Structure prediction request, 207 residues.
Amino acid sequence: MLITLSGGLQDAYTYIVRGKVFANAQTGNIVLLSSSLFSGNWGGAFSYLIPLLSFALGILVAALLKHGLKERYGIFHWRHATLAAEIVMLTIVAFMPVELSKAANAMVSFSCALQVESFRKARGYAYASTMCIGNLKSCMENAALFITGEDKNGLRKAGYYAAVILFFAIGAGLGALLSGIFGLHAILFSAALLILASILMLGRKES
Prediction:
């Protein structure tokens, strides 16, 4: 839930503080990119292309890290490496001036990609910590399975996904609130949530 809160906060931060660009919602960025291209707004298109490519690169890097760091190192495992990278990048972003918002958005999108690729399952349930459409789909599918009697645990599973969506929404709301108060530095709260998550993960079995 801490990681999901952080994901919602990051998306609100880049949209409100860094030029109305989504850090996580790459579908939205693709729509805005295409709209800009067809209207001849090449500069605007470039603003949406950067986070899109950064997100794709982040997925690749996270997958390679998982492949290269399969072994557990004491109380640490490979996900700690991705969280550490996220924390460092988000901290750097907090001190980047508004003139460097394109670069800042690229770093946040890269960070989001590391997160969504690294944390894909919790308590045996597949989920996404930085976006909602897949979680909403899983919530309604499990509700349907419960209603039809195909899965007596469907309601519990649907509730789990509903909770994930709720925490993402709370994170986005906090992101909007904190962005209004702290401006560029608001992203530090996202990094703080990830630090806490890293501590809670120490020694835990992978799920």
